[in-house]
Amino acid sequence: MSVDHFQAFHDFLAKERNDSPHTVKAYGRDLREFAAFCDRYYGGPWTWGGVDRLAVRGFLGAQQQRGLAKRSSARALSALRTFFRFLNTTQGIEVNPARATRTPRLERKLPTYLHRAEIEVLFAEAEARAAEGGFREARDLAMLELFYSTGMRLSELAGLNDADLDLVSDQVKVRGKGKKERIVPVGRKAIAAVRAYLRIRGENRALFINRRGKRISPRGVQLAVRAMIDKNVHSLRHSFATHLLDAGADLRSVQELLGHASLGTTQVYTHTSVERLKKVYHQAHPRA
């Protein structure tokens, strides 16, 4: 891959598609590995327009032989499809050898989430730390509350500006994937936590900042939240969706709140709710 192609694709993912830093980094790594594979596969000069589907299949096969998980192979295939679509738009390259390649069949894992009792304990502890602490504790409580109150993604939370949050109307403007914006309601507990944090923080364009006064990075948010919960940071987003569905919210509303492009992506949370109901049923029904 030429440096120009790589940088242009990197900028496209980060600035136009607004993908998370994790996705941008992973796609870049996948493409570099594919380019290295093509060097060996073709044994001489090659071009992106000359890549065929056999090379793509050979690359995925080599990944499986190395013991890489199917999920990693599926992501690499997605990276190649996206890259060749990018080349079609920017370079006029019509071939997309990754399009006809079948995505590895993945085992769908149910998302991890916190039960309501766990949520209560988590926030009670965070509130106690904020009451006795200073800037960092108040900020971390505000991030935690906003996370669970809105179900937004890690990168979306880190990218919030003061102007995005309307403390009067109790809502926040979220910039999701592909720079798509959505308006999400914010609960009273989150509003109160953010107000308390802002009184300590002072003036700043970025909503959440680090001790140096700069916008906190997604990694910084992750570390702060992981210090309070013993599960994946995204379990708060999963908890948001699961608890809404458990309480009777309709699937399409939850889809809109989460910023999912496909209803199928949101439906995984219905499986979580069903599994929970099955567990309750088998524990409670006398003839289960």
Q: Topology, pairings included?
A:
Blueprint: H1 3-16, H2 21-42, H3 53-65, H4 70-91, H5 116-132, H6 135-150, H7 154-158, E1 165-166, E2 171-175, E3 181-185, H8 188-201, H9 218-226, H10 235-246, H11 251-258, H12 263-266, H13 268-284
Antiparallel strand pairs: 1-2, 2-3
Q: Largest sheet, described in full?
A: 3 strands, antiparallel
H/E series: HHHHHHHEEEHHHHHH
How far is the first residue's CA from the last residue's CA? 59 Å
Low-confidence stretches: none
Instruction: Provide the gyration radius in Å.
Output: 22 Å
Average residue-wise pLDDT: 87
* Name of the CATH first level of the largest domain: Mainly Alpha
Helix-strand makeup class: mainly alpha
Number of domains: 2
Number of strands: 3
CATH architecture type of the largest domain = Orthogonal Bundle
Structure description:
- The protein starts with a helix and ends with a helix.
- With 288 residues, the chain is mainly α.
- Helices cover 60% and strands 4% of the residues.
- The protein folds into two domains: 3-91, DNA polymerase, domain 1, CATH 1.10.150; 116-281, Intergrase catalytic core (hpI Integrase, Chain A), CATH 1.10.443.
- The protein is globular and about 65 Å long.
- The mean pLDDT is 87.
- It has 13 helices and three strands; from the N terminus they run αααααααβββαααααα.
